[in-house]
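During the reporting period the student researcher (J.K.) took over the structure-prediction task from the postdoctoral fellow and processed the backlog of single-chain submissions. One of the processed entries is reproduced below for the supervisory committee.
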Amino acid sequence: MSTDVLFEIGVEELPARFIDQAERELKARTISWFKEMRIPFSEIVTFSTPRRLAVLIRQVSHKQKSIEEEVRGPALKIAKDEQGSWTKAAIGFTKGQGKTTDDLYTKDINGTTYTFIKKRTDGKETFSILPAFKDIILSIPFNQTMRWGEESIRYARPIRWLVALFGDKVIPFEIAHVKTGNVTKGHRFLGENVTITEPKQYEMLLQEQYVIVDPKKRETSILEGIKEIEKNEHVHIPIDEKLLNEVRNLVEYPTVFMGNFEKEFLDLPEEVLIISMKEHQRYFPVKSTDGQLLPHFIGVRNGDQYALDNVVKGNEKVLRARLADARFFYEEDQNIEIDSFQEMLKTVVFQEKLGTIHDKVQRVKLMTEKIAKRLQLNKDLVRKSVQAASLSKFDLVTNMVNEFTELQGVMGEKYALLKGEDADVAKAISEHYMPLHAQGELPNTIIGSIVSVADKLDTIVGCIHVGLRPTGSQDPYGLRRQAIGILRIMDKEKWQIKVEDIVQIAIDLYKNIDIPGMESTELSEAVLSFLKHRIEYLFKQQSIESDIIRAVIDHEIGVLAYAKDKAQLLSRKRNEETFKTTQEALVRVLNLSEKAERTKIDVDILSTPSEKVLYQSYLETKEVYSEAADANQALNALARLSDPIHEFFEHNMVMAKEEHIRHNRLALLYEISTLIHSFANLQLIEWNQHF
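J.K. obtained the following structure tokens:
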């Protein structure tokens, strides 16, 4: 026989950002618990609203599965004495398992004979086990928890009611003095308490009480309401998935409406209007069919159509006040010169050990100039890049960004243009924050790209310098995201500058600052190690194997775009027999070169034909390698050494008795290894998995 089971956790309003994760955790933990408890079921469905988390387990068996397990006892030599009688150890073992020595049998395990007993555990009645589900409810993780009243337990929000049903029977337990029952609560204002007589009625009964417990159905309802307005009003309403997800988790019974605001507010930058609507009021902006922002907004009410006009008016009033504030800030900011804003940056701390934002801007300016020159940009682009770096942070102290932090960079661009700044410079002020997240859009201009890299690298070097390297899930300064941004930009732009060189530029700018921290070489190693981990993450996203990535960046990262080309090439080549032959030869050189010190090759000591051929092949390969146009040509150049290397090892004893010959041969191998290492450390590529 089987019966449906329902658990509902009724709480005070959960933050929207908690709900999806909590629902996923509830489902995963329920599945795991029922399997662990050996309770068969057919399906698990979860529900969530701001006021509840619920799980419905369908067709739950009335009885736990019985199990038969093999329990190992003492070794036979301990279980029996010299006369062959069972010892106290054997008797004690059987008693502990509720058996007798007649039930013992033996098995050999790794050469030792052990005693065993087969033990059957009969399944219990499911109803008697279900009260322990209380532990699953309490185990759901939340980013933040609280205590309430005199309770010692912590939860996202206070628990106000609990439903726990096995068919029509209440599963008895309590949490924080709240006892389980069969009564749930409808919508806070429109619904009533309702008794659930069987779990399968749950969703339908709450729908009647103005609660849509399925978040997907609430989302569908919102989208249908938006589409209806689009059709009736001949407008376009862009759907922001993040906002849609948040709004569905703010309401239990969504009703979509359209409100209006005064046309004169359209004089504000579009980004200001959209941020005011989305981030502060959770409204969807409305556009014309040709993409122009209109003086309307879409809101979602937690309720039905009753007195909707009053709701619309109330929301219009709130937004009007928001936009009036924004207009005031916008106008006030324009009365202040950019130089004054920059002066204010001297009072804004970047990081307590790293100085102010003004200090940071000075470093970013110098780094930007050095990078621009290393990239051989013309003088005009260098000048514009430095100017963009100089102005990159001034908007942080504007009224508008102080109120709407999401507009940093955006307002910098707007205000710079209003003050007559060059359009390329203004654009870079906005772009230098890109990407806003790991997979976000990258800067479209070379100036924006340079300032973005300089700004992010200054943060990474500074934070690692003073011991703020990310640990585990803790990354308060977003260094991992910023590192990914740097690497993605360098890859996209195909910058012909080594990562090591650009890191050194940043480190040099900290040398003259009295900051207690790492010594320069140690700092360089720490920063490059951090970046290598991010490169591995980035390249793995492009289906490149870890051992290949490590091989390519082991000696140095070099030019990032070239490093990726090498990694992609080796990833393709690793399964080719011809490459295996080349790799084996080159790895033999790398292995022996570890015993060598860098000394000059004495050509006059080279005596055997194969030794001379290898030396000549090395010289020719070195020249061809240095002129290689891409990774494929470079690898082909190294492949020329394969046969001469095999011949050399076939006919020469590298570790010759004569010291001068031994040192000379090791010196030759060392020089060849340097060439190989500049391409990749082929020792790190795991042959056995692929050949």
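The committee noted the following: The radius of gyration is 35 Å.
J.K. will present the remaining backlog at the next meeting.
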